[in-house]
Amino acid sequence: MASATQTAAAELVCFNEGCRARYAITEVLYNCPQCGGLIEAGYARFDADPDMLKSRFRDRRTSNAPLDQSGVWRYRELFPFLDDYRHVVTLREGNTPLLDGPIAAKYGGLERITFKHQGFNPTGSFKDNGMTCGASQARRLGMKRVACVSTGNTSASMAAYAAAAGLEALIFLPHGNISFGKLAQALEYGAKTLQVEANFDQILALVRVLAERLGIYLLNSMNPFRIEGQKAIMFEMLDQLDWRVPDWVVLPGGNLGNTSAFGKGLREAKAAGLIDKLPRLAVIQAEGSAPFYDYWAAGARGAFHPVTKPETLATAIRIGDPVSWPKALHEVRTSNGTVEKVSEQEIADAKAQIGLCGIGCEPASAATLAGIRKLTASGVIDRGADVVAVLTGNLLKDPDYIYRYHTGQLEAPGGVKIQPTFGNKALVVPNDPDKIAKLLAVAD
Ligand code: F0G
User: Fold this and answer.
1) What is this structure's pTM?
2) CA dihedral 154, 238, 269, 75 (to 10 degrees)
């Protein structure tokens, strides 16, 4: 267990290459006051012995100390922004498994696939990894109120961490476009919940104005401390692989905070000597909400064009103007990665295949396998590659989608019917053993 106080120099830094302005780690900043660029946390040069660190991380798995039990704070040397660990609010986030999915591997055109399932988090998504850091920083700053706009998972997570931290939670949601499961979580955790008649991108602009006016701490992913926590998804993955570096890490892209976090974490792990190469990042977007894919496919030069009316049934990634695209672009380029897009039908079928592995996930997460299937078909990913797909949210986040798919009632935006390719309908049967036995063709 580390001491309560730790001294590594941490500061906020403008991400913009041409600016790199530096600010105190305790400033409330989401964009650089000088150039408007994104903000990130930066640390003094790291000189701990990598083998010592690896064994310390491993030892902490047997500890009962709350900080060590967290699959985020276990790796705290790699994001030393707090000056006092008594500010930490943890629900024992992270600790998510690596799972084999042979059926999904075959479907994706791979010999093997490993899922890193973030749906095993306390509120059922990867947002908890970031939220523990964001909420802890809010406490350190003495904030009373925190806010976010969300497609559902950020709000569920923020509501839980705010409740655990004794902070007031204010949530803004696109009315009618988040799953019931996620909305229900926010209500149960006691958050003040506002459903706005606008889309995610429009509400984010609104909330930024309100946060400034009302002095509320914003916990969307342009908050640099969210990104620090989400880096730990990669640290935990590497630790679970005994620090073997996979060829590819595949993840869905919405607001692109997670892509930014994974890339930063991996680069920093390499700089710290924990790994000697980077995995390639593959970011998958839903066809109707794919501005990052469009930008990438057009050569990633010049102006970035948001999608003004983003659409997808994978509501978690229904985002047309992703805030973190400059960071994400840097990470995809640095890792020699790629960006792909997938259709509604492809997402739905890939999701059913992940279900057939006994694993399951929410729609946005299944974009990973759908993307892998395309990328193996086009030869970008080799059949024999070592691939980790990050499933970002739990199956139970959106049961309505699942029921509709399996019963042939799922419709893509615009009314196009999704085929239940791997549909599995419940059968209604009479209370009669003979008839049921006959139906099941069970020999008596
Ligand atoms: N998968 C799930 C399940 C998500 O909830 C999100 C984002 C993403 C993928 C995309 O991650 O934005 O970092 O690229 N959900 C946010 C929310 C936007 O409000 O819950 P990203």
Assistant:
1) 0.96
2) 60
